[in-house]
Write a structure and sequence with these properties.
The complex is a heterodimer of chains A (201) and B (684). With 201 residues, chain A is α+β, with helices and mostly antiparallel strands. Chain A contains 4 helices and 8 strands; from the N terminus they run H-E-E-H-E-E-H-H-E-E-E-E. Chain A has a single domain, classed as Cell Cycle, Spindle Assembly Checkpoint Protein, Chain A (2-Layer Sandwich), CATH 3.30.900.10.
Chain lengths: 201, 684
Amino acid sequence: MTSTLKGITLKGSAELVAEFFSFGINSILYQRGIYPPETFSRVTQYDMSLQLTTDTKLKNYLANVVSQLKEWLFDCTVQKLVLVITCLETNEVLERWQFDIACDKTAKESSAPRDKSIKSIQEEIRSVIRQITASVTFLPLLETACSFDLLVYTDKDLEVPDKWEESGPQIIDQSEVVRLRSFTTSIHKVNSMVAYKRSDF
Amino acid sequence: MDIDDDTTVFATLKSFKNFISLPDASLNQGEPAPAQSNPLQRQYRQRIELLEAAEKVQSKTQQIHEDQEKRQMAMSHKRARIELEKVASLSARDLEREVDRNQELLGRIRRLEEREVESSKSLSEQVEANRALRRTQETLNLRIMERDAKLNASYQTVSILKDEIRELKQQIQSKQNIIANQTLATQGLQEQMELQQRKYQEVSQRCQDLQSASSTCSDHELKIKDLERKLALQEQDVVIVKNIKSEVAKVPEMEKALRQLREENIYLRETRENVTLLKEETEGLRRKVERMEKLKEEMVTMELEKEKISQKLQAWENLGQSTGLDIQKPEDLSREVIKIQQREIALKQQNYTLTSGCRSVERSKADLQGELLVQRSKALEEQKKRETQESLVRRLQKRVLLLTKERDGMRSILESYDSELSTNDYTPQLTRRLREAEDVLSKTQNHNAEMEVQLTKAQEEVGALKLQVQTMELDLESLKKQQASVAEGNPLVTTEEINTLRLKIEELEAERQRLEEQNNVLELRLERHDLEGDYDPVKTKVLHLGQNPTSMAKKQRLEEVEALREEVQCLREHLRSLQTGGAVPAAVGDLGVTVNLPPSQEILDLRKQIESAELKNQRLKEVFQKKIQEFRTVCYVLTGYQIDITTQNQYRLTSLYAEHMDDSLLFKYEELTDPLLMMSLQRK
């Protein structure tokens, strides 16, 4: 848990959002079968049981990305986080999970904590993750071997840190987009949506 | 004292005697005349005198007694006094002692009081301590009670535990019994196990015997299987031969069918060509039909146009009649049109001149109106000025009146003061009064002046406002007049302008709506692109980690693909080498070295097994051949007959004692019957 003080500060909000991303990405990887289910272990978070990977390489990669993301959230320079699922045989992008982040920049100037209870934020996060799990019903099956990548949309003038490089947006042509729920910590607002390639019959 | 008393007694006796002598003298002195009086009186007087003397003596004795008593009393007094003094001294001493004692007692009392106070304090403290102790006692009592309760509980638990311990001990005992039983059972089982082991050993020996027997059985079975395989192959050959025979029988029929089919084929080809030709024809016809239909439609439209044009032509032809002009050819019409246009141009020119004149007139009118307004405003201003000046004049007149009145009043006051001054001589008062009056006057004058200033200001403001109002009214009237004049003067121009403006407005509105719709569409598109992940390259950029799972998976895939390709290539080379028939182990070894395929342990074992099996096979073959050769030579030598296998299931018997070397008997072996059939004698 981030803190037991009343109110949300910018730092606390960044931590909450980063935590959500960490668990959300793990859930998506488990649900879409990118990694075999036996490499995941069950943990309890947000009053529900979620799956976390035990693969060390994947864990390291996710930890790197999430820690950098936390910094960027604190600086309010990140605009979107996108999880791109690519088919390895055809190098086509099959699915795109996009999280839009809207940051209230006035929180950077004033350091007064905002009045929003952590419980309500957790409720909202819970409903978003439930929707991600329920999205399995309408998303097409990923039959071929797939891999994923995390893209971060940032401000143009941001200094690119070590080991990070620029990439294309990896957009799906002819995609169906489904908007999911959003949640807000009163400083950061996160909108979720999923775009998948239209399966032509 | 007694002496003194005696002396006093003698003194008194003396005095008594004296006294007694005296009375005679006194009596004699006193009463010389009545000497001759009666003796009674003398007696009486004597008696009286005696009485009196007695009384006196008595009194004196009494006095003496009293004196004695007094002296005694005094003595006793003295004695008493002395005693008293003694007693007093004693008592004083006693008193002193008592006082000392008193003081001591007082001191003691004080000490006792102090002690009492202390004791009271200590008592109070003790009481408090007592109370505290009582409280502690109570708490201790409570604790004791609690402890008692706890102890009771603990006793209970102890009892419970003891019961449990008893039970557990019982259980332990029972379990120990069980264990003993089980040890006995285990012992029995161990003995059984030993028996079983012995049996097992026997059985294993039997098993080994059985295994050896089974191995021999399996060898036999293998042999049986080989022979069965050979049999199956022979049967297959038989079946094949039968099939071939049947097929051969079918050949002429097939030839007939083939001929028929060829004829049919030719026929079908012809029909197909016909069909294609017919299809082309139908397509051509369809196209023609479509063209015809189009032509029909065009014709219909042309006819309609023709009718319209003919109508128009008729209308044009009738124009001359309808317009009333002398028109028979289009040239006349054009002439008329030119005339009309010229007229129109002339009229327009007139119109323009008229409008320009009108506008100039209007402009002059506006100028004049402006001048009029200016003039009116000036007039009003002059009026105002006049009014203000008149008001000023009035005010000044009023002021003058007031001043004169004041002056008169002051003069009267002064005259009164002068008159007063002449009669009385109160100059200081008067001067003071004068000063006061002057002050009051000045104040009132200042007040007056201020009021007048304010009044003038207010009046000026009012005048200015009135001016403004009037100018505004004039402007309004002029505007109204203008509007009316404009509306009357050029209604066509205004309506035309209004119409054009309205049309412009409508066009602009339509354009605005169109642009709004476009805007909405673009916004939707933008949102859609944003949902899909599009971004503005000027403001955003997309970052990702270089070492991400997708790139690593792609690299792995490429490496796998490369490795697979190399493996495929070396396998192909290996296959080629095998097909060419080179030395297998060497080739394999060479390939293994060049390609660096690590030979697994299984493959090596299998190769070794294969080699060993091949060696075994070869040795068996050699041994078998040798044995067979021996056997055949022995048979030939002993029996004189040699049996050779010519072809499958055919045996040739040659005898040593035959007439010719080439004489032999041919036999065929059939399984069903024991004696050999199909004997034939051959001579070569």
